[in-house]
Amino acid sequence: xxxxxxxxxxxxxxxxGHAFSALTAWTAARAEGGRFLxxxxxxxxxRCRPEFETGIVEDLTWLGLDWEEPVRRQSDHLPDYASxxxxxxxxxxxxxxxxxxxxxxxxxxxxxxxxxxxxxxxPHAPDDEAGMLGEGRAFAWRLSLDRAREALGGARWDRLxxxxxxxxxxxxxxxxxxxxxxxGDVVLARKDAGTAYHLAVTHDDALQGVSHVIRGQDLFEATxxxxxxxxxxDWPTPVYRHHRLVIGTDGRRFAKRDGAVTLRALRASGLTSxxxxxxxxx
Length: 282
Ligand code: GLU
What we know:
Layout: E1 3-6, H1 16-32, E2 35-40, H2 50-63, E3 72-73, H3 78-90, E4 94-97, H4 126-134, E5 140-143, H5 145-152, H6 154-158, E6 161-164, E7 174-177, E8 187-189, H7 197-207, E9 212-216, H8 222-233, E10 239-243, H9 263-268, H10 273-279
Bound molecules: glutamic acid (GLU).
Residues 7-9, 41, 112, 201, 215, 219 line the site of glutamic acid.
């Protein structure tokens, strides 16, 4: 059955970009007679806050959206993700990484929206690793692309792909060859969270039977590594529909970090949800 989701992280208030994404997914589910899920992706203990989760529900309700209950909150399911980490570890696909942010450009595992150059630090020398473990230092688990390639076999690796029914930022459409190399040895378990975005999102899409991932083009690149994780775990690869990003009057895309006008503020200023929807084309 056609199943899609809106999967925000409660790290701030929703803005028009989120509204566009949620409305796109909800409308598609309605049009297909399918299911629309809301998933709270709150695995980042430093940035997620309960009041932002409450805000998400308020904002989406105001927009006129509804979704299946119960809402899946990722922080309630950390053991699920830990067991995937364990499976991948047992298969020798992960390595410990003790390096700090300062030591390497460590953006990919935790910042799905950031375009970051591929990071492939590789395992530490066994003696160094033993020493750092002995000192009780915190480490992340990274996916080794070399070992993943061996595990899948070259032929399967070369056939990694996903279907794009929307459009990537460069107009990508149709059957897209997945190139996990562009992402590097991503972090699948953060030092502080025991999981990471790519792992939690692919696990949950599989668990919840998501057939269509509808989300912004800023996450198009993430699909390359997500298709690899799906292949490694024998999870189905959903169909992807990446949509254009909503651009503000200054010509830049909305982003929480830029302090874009929030739906909450628009509502307080007297904007009706009908007007908000119409402005976004719904
Ligand atoms: N939680 C991610 C975000 O905040 C979205 C995940 C996804 O749609 O794949 O943007």
